[in-house]
Amino acid sequence: MKRIPLLISCLLIVLIMILTSCVQKDSPSTDPMPDESPKETASPPQTQSDVIIRLGMQFQEDSVMAVYQAAKEKFEADNPGAVIEFVLQERDLYDTIGLPTLLDGKNSPDIYFEWAGQRLIDRRAEGYLAPIPEMQGEWKEMFFESAFSGSTFDGVPHMVPQSTDISVMIWYNVKMFEELNISVPATWDEMLAACEKIKAADKIPFAVGNKGFWPAGNWGGHIISRIVGEEAYSKALMGESDFNTPEFAKAMDYLKELGIKGYINDDMSALTDEEAGVLFYTGEAAMYPLGNWVVADMNANAEEDFLADYFNLPAITGGKGDQTSVMGVNTGHVINAKTQHHDLCVAFLKVFSSTENLISMAQQGYLPPAKGVVTTENADALMVKMMDETLAGTGTVVAPPDTGYNLEIANNLYEAIAKALTGQYDSTEVLASLDEANAHLR
Amino acid sequence: MQGMIRTRKNQKNELSGYLFVAPAFIIFLIFVLLPVLITFAYSFFRYDGFNPMQYIGFSNYSRLYLDKIHLQAYMNTFIYIALTLVLEVGVGLTLAALVSARFKGSIFFRTAFFTPVLLPGVVVGMLWTFVYNQRFGLLNALLKAIKLESLAISWLSNEKTALIAVSVVSGWIFAGYYMTIFYAAIQRIPKDLYDAADIDGASPIRQFLYIKLPLIMDMVVVAVLLCVTGAFQGFDLFYVMTNGQPNHKTEIVTTWLVRIVFNNRDVGYGSAMSVVLTLIVLIMAVGINKARRHTEY
To answer: What is the pLDDT of residues B77-105, one digit of tens each?
Structure first.
């Protein structure tokens, strides 16, 4: 029996050895990234003297990766001894817990993809966002001023713009609109009248796939911002004011009306956004409220003779917001404040944001907010329309709840919007529940 | 002297016993006990998984009782348990009774009923999402074929049917699993009992109720225990088929927990949820085990 303490001590020593081996500083196993994130390293064999610049981002289509690869090759040719290594993650993972995990790892990325707004504010507070004072003069002036919205702090840019995502636009079936003699609605009431015609023709006015909450969440968020005004929308999403106000209740009633009148597919909560897209592409639904990325999806999945166009959310009479506003967010690449190679990161981002490279991105369905890039010569006509009419025609870009604001409040709002769109709940009660769910954040 | 030798021998045996247990114990310690303790510790902090933790005492626990969705998730879980007890254990028992009656092709049916257990939950979830699809789903096509169009609805987005629809899929998977357990137990029953019952003129149903069922009751209780604890671990079907929708009517504790931790990045609150969930599962498991003792002969 006397040996039991000795035995326990031995076991503890073994345990400590195992645990310490897990956190050995030189052990490659401590780095979560090689295991968690598949990498693309199409670079020549590395030598001891190579400086590795790691770029964290979401998985991209092969055609987009080819643009990154071209930039990598040019950078490596210009900077012998420096190697770009892509650290790729599945999209939903990267958006949520993936990127913070990468940043928290021992070999955190030197450069990473991000969305402007609250996410960048969080990264800055966490110490993962470096200012880019080099971004001035010719380099900065090649972009539109609005490209730096949500990424400039203390007057210094913190992100090199890559694209402006328009999160909500209403795609419509051109042929169906013509057959039903519907013109593009300019006001909310005209849109409801169009819905009535579409419904009478036994078609679904709006195809929405809200299994993931964000598709209707973004759309509903835009409608809300138009009605309550951008300031009230922003304050509520920052947790600085309540949602349960007459203005928000009015906005919820607008959403509720869509549900009551049956203008949305009634299996909305059971479909993903892609599945709702099928309803649109096959002509079962007339409209599809989603972002600019539908272009790429449509090219891949719709029949060749399928013709679609889009319009921005129509003006809502009496709404307090800018009735030409666009829901969108700037995206781009930022430099990790913890990197040892800031200058090389800047050098790579200069290569990546060259006009030539941004034109290649525009050809892949992106909207680089740079001058002379999205033109009829370089990009799809729909992309040019987005840039020249939609973005140029608005004074206000409203951030989507889940990229511009507190994530938990955004998720709670999305649930409230989903509830309102069923048409079965009292708007005030929905908003009271929303405030209750947010109460612990105050 | 002899006593001393015996004592040393006993000590040596004890030591070797501990050494044999040591590897499993260390693995248990690292991969089970330590994470449980760490989760318990996290539950007293505001923590997003990355930034410094902030001690907030029992705030996460008090929040649990104010979180209506959390409470609804428990209610949904208990409804799910009740449904699966019928659809998994009840149907499994019925199937076992049927396939244990010797008839031509019973092996085929045993195999067929067990097959769904071999399929990954995510695959089954996807498959049944198509079956339930409002427009081209098999179920609605069947209803339309027999002139019951009015019943052809969107099963997974209807608040009244979504939870039942997912539970039916769970039953489809696991009824075969419980059938196998019960079938094995029925095979252990001595054949002379059936012979005696045949001589007494007992019908197959009476034989099942008065011979088979009492003699496999211990397995039934084990099945209930597995079904209840398994229901608390359910996740994949709900995540794939409904993601808690519509309006949290299919939100169960695990799906809500995942959303809290991974979408809202609220590790502290999620830890408190995990601790309470673990305690509830433990209490239920102990309760069912106690009930089992009463069924032992």
So the answer is: 999 999 999 999 999 999 998 888 767 77
Write the residue in A15, A407, A408 that is nearest to B29 by C-beta: A15
- The whole domain housing B25 covers 2-42
The runs of H, that is alpha helices, within A23-117 are: 32-36, 62-78, 91-93, 99-104
pLDDT of residue A36: 39
Residues B94, B23, single domain; the answer is no
A265 and A280 share one domain: yes
> Is position B162 within any domain?
yes
Q: Is residue B50 part of a domain?
A: no
How many structural domains compose chain A? 2
Per the structure, the complete domain to which residue A356 belongs is given by 31-165+329-383
DSSP state of B96: H
Residues A231 and A184 in one domain: yes
Alpha helices in A302-341 (DSSP H): none
Interface contact flag, B245 A267, Cβ < 8 Å:
no
CA–CA gap between residue B267 and residue B256 (Å, rounded): 13
Q: Which of A108, A111, A131, A98 is CA-nearest to residue A71?
A: A111
Bridge partners, residue A187, by sequence:
A315
By CA distance, what is A1's nearest residue in B? B11
Whole-angstrom CA distances from A20 to A24, A28, B39, B166 are: 6, 14, 20, 45
Asked whether residue B53 is domain-assigned, the answer is no
Contact state of A268 with B266 under an 8 Å Cβ cutoff: no
Q: Is the dihedral of CA B121, B126, B128, B134 positive or negative?
A: positive
Q: Is A329:A150 a contact under the CB 8 Å cutoff?
A: yes
In contact, A276 and A209? CB cutoff 8 Å = yes
Do B32 and B69 lie in a common domain? no
Best CA proximity match to A216, nearest among A182, A157, A263: A263
B170 close to B90: Cβ distance less than 8 angstroms: no
What's the CATH number where A198 sits?
3.40.190.10
Q: Are residues A344 and A303 in the same domain?
A: no
Instruction: For residues B23 and B111, state if they share a domain.
Output: no
A351 in the same domain as A323: no
Question: What is the distance in angstroms between the Cα of A370 and the nearest Cα belonging to chain B?
Answer: 33
Least confident stretch, A35-49, A297-311, B18-32, B58-72: A35-49
Length of chain A: 442
- Residues A157, A173, single domain; the answer is no
- B54, part of any domain: no
Q: Are residues A186 and A213 in the same domain?
A: yes
Point out the residue among B29, B49, B243 whose CB comes nearest to the CB of A100. B49
Per-residue pLDDT band for A302 (boundaries 50, 70, 90) equals confident
Q: How far is A186 from chain B (nearest CA, A)?
A: 32
Per DSSP, A83 falls in state E
User: Residue B5: is its pLDDT beyond 80?
Assistant: no
Residues A371 and A412 in one domain: no
In a domain, A266, yes or no: yes
What whole-number distance in Å separates Cα of residue B132 and Cα of residue A17?
53
Token pair 């088929």 is found at B241
Residue A215 forms part of a structural domain: yes
Distances (CA, A) of B227 to B166, B180, B220, B283, B288: 15, 14, 10, 15, 11
The token pair that represents B35 in the structure block: 């994470």
Q: Which of A83-92, A390-399, B36-45, B263-272 has the lowest mean pLDDT?
A: A390-399
Q: How far is B161 from chain A (nearest CA, A)?
A: 12
